[in-house]
Amino acid sequence: MSDKDSAGKVVIQPADLRASAGIVKSLGEELGAPVQNAVNTSTTASGQLTGWSIAGGLGQLGSGWAKPLGALRQRLADTASNLNANADAHAHNDQAVAGGWAAQQAAK
């Protein structure tokens, strides 16, 4: 995601940040269906096994994992948004610095 220039300084590439944001966003989106399927399956199985000792555990399994996995998906979405915002900020900063140098060169 970052490289070092010849002076050993870290160089941030906005395109790399945006690519990482896209990957993180995709991971969060791809996680949605399997999570929902697992929650639904455990809830359905729990309902079908009413009266069996395992039914309560299956119900708790589904309801117990729904919230943390939902939070994980939200964190992935937030991370993607933050990476895109960071890329925009770096690009804006690069343009501002380049504009400042151009103005100084034109004044000479």
Q: Can you give keywords for this protein?
A:
82% helix, two-stranded antiparallel ribbon, 108 residues
Helix-strand topology string: EEHH
Return the average pLDDT rounded to an integer.
88
Helical content, roughly?
A: over 70%
Number of self-contained structural domains: 1
Which percent band covers the strand fraction?
5-15%
Number of strands: 2
User: What is the 3D shape?
Assistant: rod-shaped
Radius of gyration: 24 Å
Termini separation (Å)? 37 Å
Strand order of the largest sheet: 1-2
- The number of helical elements comes to 2
User: What class do helices, strands and sheet pairing give?
Assistant: mainly alpha
The residue ranges in which pLDDT falls below 50 over 5 or more consecutive positions are none
Major beta sheet summary? 2 strands, antiparallel
